[in-house]
Amino acid sequence: MDLLEAWGLTVVITALVFDTTASNSGVHRGAAKLLEQQLDRKVFYLACRHHILEVLVGAVWENLFGKVKSPENPWFKHFKDVWTDLTTDNPTTLSIRQKWLNKKKKECKEILQEILRSEKPPRADYREMTELTLIVLGKHASPRNPLESSWSHSSGQVDGQKPVFYEDVHVC
C-alpha cells in the first residue's frame, strides 16, 4: 500500500484482477478485501477465469487418481523433477479402450477443432487449452509448438496500462 500511495495510484485504482484462491478472494482476510479496506472504498473485482480451469482439472484428477492428501502433489513434484528430460516433439496421447468413451473422445476432438476454425477464435489462454486438449486426445492442433505457453510472452498489460503487482493481485 505504501508503494501505491508513494506513486499516487490509490486514487485511480478502480478494479482488482486476481486468481480465486482464498488468500486473494477471501471475504474477510483476502488480499483484495484488505486492499479495498485500505483504499476505504469499493472497487470492481475481476476474478481471473483462467484459474477456474484449475478447479475443473482438479476434479478430473481426483476422480482418476484420488484425493491428494498433502499441499504438495507428489506426482507434480516428480513431473517438475523430470521436466527437462521430456521431449515435446512427439507427445503421448490418451489411450482409451472403452467404445462409448472413444465416441466421446471423437466428439470432443470435433468440437475443439471447430472452435479453432471458427470466425471468432478464442482468446489466447482458451486457444492454448484447446490445443493442449487436442494433443492429449491425439490430434495436433497447429504447426507452432503448443507446449510453449502464450502466457510466457504476455506483457501483463490491461488496456495498455502496466499493472502494479501486490502478491498475486493485479491492480489496474
Question: Features of this protein?
Answer:
elongated, 172 residues, single chain, Transposase, signal, four-stranded mixed beta sheet, alpha+beta, 7 helices, 2 domains
**Main pleated-sheet profile:** 4 strands, mixed
Number of helices: 7
Strand content: 5-15%
Largest beta sheet: strand ordering:
2-1-4-3
**Count of discrete domains:** 2
List low-pLDDT spans: 145-172
Bulk shape: elongated
Order of helices and strands: HEHHEHHHHEE
Distance between the termini: 14 Å
Helix fraction, binned, reads: 40-55%
Helix and strand content put the structural class at alpha+beta
Mean pLDDT: 75
Radius of gyration: 20 Å
| Total strands | 4
Describe the structure.
The protein has 172 residues and is α+β, with helices and mostly antiparallel strands. The protein folds into 2 domains: 1-76 and 163-172, no CATH class; 89-144, no CATH class. Helices cover 43% and strands 8% of the residues. It has helices spanning 2-6, 22-25, 31-39, 52-65, 74-82, 99-117, 124-137, and strands at 15-18, 44-47, 164-166, 169-171. A 4-stranded mixed β-sheet has the order 2-1-4-3, with no helix packed on it. Strand 3 and strand 4 form a beta hairpin. It is elongated, with a radius of gyration of 20 Å. The relative contact order is 0.15.
